[in-house]
TrEMBL record:
InterPro entries: DNA/RNA_pol_sf, Peptidase_aspartic_dom_sf, Retrovirus_Pol_polyprotein, Rev_trsase/Diguanyl_cyclase, RT_dom, RT_RNaseH_2, Znf_CCHC, Znf_CCHC_sf. Residues 504-682 form the Reverse transcriptase domain. One of its GO terms (biological process) is proteolysis. Keywords: Aspartyl protease, DNA-binding, Endonuclease, Hydrolase, Metal-binding, Multifunctional enzyme, Nuclease, Nucleotidyltransferase, Protease, Transferase, Zinc, Zinc-finger. Residues 256-311 are annotated as: Disordered. This is Reverse transcriptase. Residues 297-311 have a biased composition (Acidic residues). SUPFAM superfamilies: Acid proteases, DNA/RNA polymerases, Retrovirus zinc finger-like domains. Gene3D superfamilies: 3.30.70.270, Acid Proteases, HIV Type 1 Reverse Transcriptase, subunit A, domain 1, Zinc finger, CCHC-type. It comes from Loxostege sticticalis (Beet webworm moth). It comes from the Eukaryota. GO terms for molecular function: aspartic-type endopeptidase activity; DNA binding; endonuclease activity; nucleotidyltransferase activity; zinc ion binding. Residues 216-230 form the CCHC-type domain.
């Protein structure tokens, strides 16, 4: 019976599935253990056996046991994937066009297998399913569910998709019966190439809403656009205007509220009887209608004669095709609700249904207010409630109006101003889908993030699990033993406390003897605490084979963030101390203190190899994550949208958590429009000098010797690319640095000193370099030096400076320049 089992196809076969089937074959046929390997060899096929011989070489397969052969084949054909890479692929998986819910669910389950989610599998499946579903209708329905789990999410999505598919069939039949011409063509072109086509269910749900609400303003019927109506060029016998029939004329008799179908706008009658019908008038190429919110406050004493001409008129029309409404989630009474931005409305409104469902305990107060709509109609709200509203750390008590038969929650100008809300930007992609709007509730996101990655943010010292650092010394290097340096009595207590903390954390460990010993260097941190460093330049660094892994230049990092608008910055806590040293390396790092000898078990500041080792580890962790820059322990996430920043930040935090690294939360920035990074301030406009870093330079007194002057010029040159023709301005100061030059601080030096500080104070904002844009290079030469400006043009055609460069001319070269003039 074994011969009936198929051969393994090396090109298309799945080895794990093949082995599982083979195990069941053994069970079904009672194959003994000693016959499993011969059976496998006999049925695997010629190409499979040839591969088996290669992976088992130099030992023949039949001389191994079944488990060993299967393991070797598995390692070759299906090596265990990186958990991080698998999770990244899983997070990127969105539902594709034409893919049904069941197909998407199956793909998510397949991709989750190598992710090792363990107890959080269903939770991760649910989150990715909700985030990745294409249908906005389904997603909003899932958002409305409380305590939604994976099973109920997929079940509910399948029900909605099936209902939409069934509705498309009914809709297609009805439109065919009603009009075999233009309407049936519209149904097929709008919904799909056939009723119930699975690839168009997302459009079906949206189309169902549109067809239920939209009513032709020419004839009053539903199911088609005004531009497609046969009566759109008719003259109305009542008002004598072209574009509609008498029965829908605004001057005619009132239309019965019962004829309204589907979701409609808010009733415009004073008592809000029934539901108004949505008026639609869009171009032939547009899909859907157009929303036109407009609410105007009026006093009750105003004349209401115009309002009595029509009993019902919508407050809004349907969205115009791809141009979706802008919605912002806001916390109201400790509940998150989505509100649609409406700058045409002074007030913020909710429907009566939302009020009774979410805010039944809020007292509904009467209000002496009338709402006037875009078309001139008027309506009175049911009342107003006072609610506690929170948005981006702004908390206020505001009025929220309740409208009878309302649908959309409106966010008006009052709330926009009181909560300092910036209306988010959005764009329409080629496939018609809207980009994600940068209007997320960052407070809730951060709270969830701190909870999910609590191990990353706790106060304990991290321990990198991705490998150990190794220090190597030159062959034949002689150990150097230095005595402990005298410690001021005023610092002894604080140094003892720091040593005790390092002992508890396992950073250092006492030793009785060592060939190497390095004295301590005490460094004050900006927060007032001490950092104990070792002066390895007099001991180990002289014999060390330095790890030369490249640390990126600042220019390289900034060139990657062009076009970014949102920034998150992470700072690893005691970064080097999170890397463990191997046993041999710890013998080299011994420090000599007033309390005796201690060896470092972790990577330590002051070692010449520490930057290269640490940058290498960080590169292995983060190099494949887009929009991430890192300079040693400073990680920067820069994206063009807030949603991308949140997504990338979660990926980075998961990488850090999986590798045992910890972050100092107090030094981090999240989802900011401006951050300080590596001595600069960066935002969407470009790079600026850091005022805190520049302040000590601006307050410096004139130098009194060459050493102080070199220090001043060095600090100025750090920001040299911000100052045009810097070398020319520094020329009088450079004169004092020449060999055999006398130190004479004269008026020209003082003027240059003051001028450079003024230029630094008013330094330009530099644009980010964009490799896709052409470069404009402007050069100039003068009697004292050379200057250059590197620039690029932005979208508006303006020339933006990337960097300034300059160089002072030596006296000999300057003489040649003057002679040539």
């Amino acid at each position: 019976m074994a011969a009936k089992f198929g051969e393994f196809n090396l090109e298309t076969g799945n080895w794990n599935s093949y082995c599982e089937r083979l195990d069941m074959h053994f069970v079904a046929n009672n194959v003994a253990e000693e016959k499993k390997l011969p059976t496998l060899i006999s049925i695997i096929g010629e190409s499979g056996y040839e591969l088996m011989v290669n992976v088992c070489s130099p030992i023949k397969p039949h001389k191994k046991n079944y488990e060993e052969v299967v393991k070797l084949m598995t390692e070759h054909l299906q090596p265990k994937p990186s958990i991080l890479a698998a999770r990244y692929i899983f997070r990127q998986r969105m539902q594709r066009l034409g893919e049904s819910v069941t197909q998407y669910v199956s793909e998510l389950k397949r991709l989750s297998r190598p992710c090792d989610f363990k107890d959080t599998l269903n939770e991760n499946l649910r989150d990715q399913f909700v985030c990745g579903i294409r249908s906005e209708t389904i997603r909003q329905r899932l958002f409305a569910e409380e305590n939604l789990d994976w099973t109920n999410a997929t079940k509910l999505a399948n029900i909605i998709e099936s209902a939409a598919r069934d509705a498309s069939v009914v809709f297609s039949e009805e439109t065919d019966n009603r009009d075999a011409g233009s309407r049936s063509t519209l149904a097929r072109s709008s919904i799909g190439v056939g009723p119930g086509a699975p690839g168009d269910v997302y459009r079906v749900t949206g189309e169902m809403d549109r067809m239920r609400i939209a009513e032709c303003t020419a004839c009053g019927e539903t199911g088609h656009r005004w531009s497609e109506c046969r009566y759109r060029n008719f003259d109305c016998s009542r008002c004598r205007k072209i574009g509609h029939l008498r029965r829908v004329c605004p001057l005619g008799k009132q239309i019965s509220a019962g004829r309204g179908s589907g979701r409609a706008g808010w009733s415009s009658s004073p008592r809000g009887r029934g539901r108004g019908r949505g008026r639609e008038r869009a171009g032939a190429g547009a899909r859907g209608g157009a929303r036109a919110h407009y609410v105007h406050e009026e006093d009750d004493s105003r004349d209401s004669q115009d309002a009595e001409q029509q009993d019902e008129e919508p407050m809004y029309l349907m969205s115009l095709g791809n141009y979706k409404p802008v919605s912002i989630p806001i916390k109201v009474q400790n509940q998150i609700i989505k509100m649609e931005v409406d700058t045409g409305s002074a007030l913020s409104c909710i429907s009566e249904l939302v009020y009774r469902k979410m805010f039944p305990k809020c007292v509904l107060k009467a209000c002496n207010l009338t709402l006037r709509f875009y078309n001139g109609m008027r309506a009175k709200p049911l009342g107003v409630i006072e609610v506690n509203v929170t948005y981006n750390k702004i908390n206020k008590i505001l009025d929220l109006y309740v409208i009878e038969n309302g649908t959309t929650n409106l966010l008006g100008r009052q709330w926009l101003a009181e909560l300092n809300i910036t209306i988010p930007r959005f764009s329409v992609t080629n496939d018609g889908s809207c980009n994600k709007i940068d209007s997320l509730d960052t407070d809730s996101i951060l709270k969830d993030m701190f909870c999910r990655y609590k191990e990353v943010f706790n106060e304990e010292l991290g321990q990198f699990t991705g490998g150990r650092a190794r220090l190597r010394v030159c062959e034949g290097a002689k150990p150097v033993f230095c005595r402990a340096r005298p410690l001021p009595y005023a610092l002894r207590e604080r140094v003892d406390a720091e040593l005790d903390a390092m002992l508890r954390a396992g950073v250092i460990e006492p030793v009785d003897h060592s060939d190497w010993a390095t004295p301590l260097v005490i460094v004050n941190k900006p927060d007032g605490s001490l950092r104990l460093c070792a002066d390895y330049k007099v001991t180990l660094n002289r014999a060390l084979l330095v790890d030369k892994f490249p640390v990126p230049k600042i220019e390289d990092l900034f060139s990657k963030i062009s076009g970014s608008r949102y920034f998150s910055k992470l700072d690893l806590a005691q970064a080097y101390n999170q890397i463990i040293l191997d046993n041999e390396s710890t013998k080299l790092t011994v420090i000599n203190t007033h309390r005796g000898l201690f060896k470092y078990n972790r990577l330590v500041y002051g070692l010449a190899s520490s930057p290269g080792i640490f940058q290498r580890f960080m590169n292995e962790l983060l190099k494949d994550i887009p929009n991430v820059s890192f300079f040693l322990d400073d990680i920067l996430i820069s994206t063009s949208s807030l949603s991308d920043n949140v997504k990338t930040l979660n990926v980075v935090l998961e990488v850090l958590q999986n590798n045992g690294l910890k972050i100092k939360r107090q030094k981090c920035n999240f989802f900011a429009n401006e951050v300080k990074y590596l001595g600069f301030v960066i935002d969407k406009e470009g790079i600026k000098v850091d005022p805190d870093k520049v302040k000590p330079i601006l307050t410096m007194t004139p130098p009194t010797n060459v050493s102080e002057l070199r220090s001043f010029i060095g600090m100025i040159n750090f920001y040299g690319k911000f100052i045009e023709n810097l070398s020319e301005h520094l020329a009088p100061l450079y004169c004092l640095l020449r060999k055999h030059s006398r130190w004479v601080w004269g008026q020209s030096q003082q003027r240059a000193f003051n001028k450079v500080k003024e230029l630094l104070k008013g330094a330009h904002v530099l644009a980010y370099y964009d490799v896709a844009k052409p470069v404009v290079l402007t050069c100039d030469a003068g009697p004292r030096g050379l200057g250059a400006v590197l620039a690029q043009r932005d979208a508006a055609g303006r020339e933006r400076v990337i960097a300034y460069a300059s160089r002072a001319l030596a006296p000999g070269i300057r003489f040649i320049f003057l002679a040539s003039q």
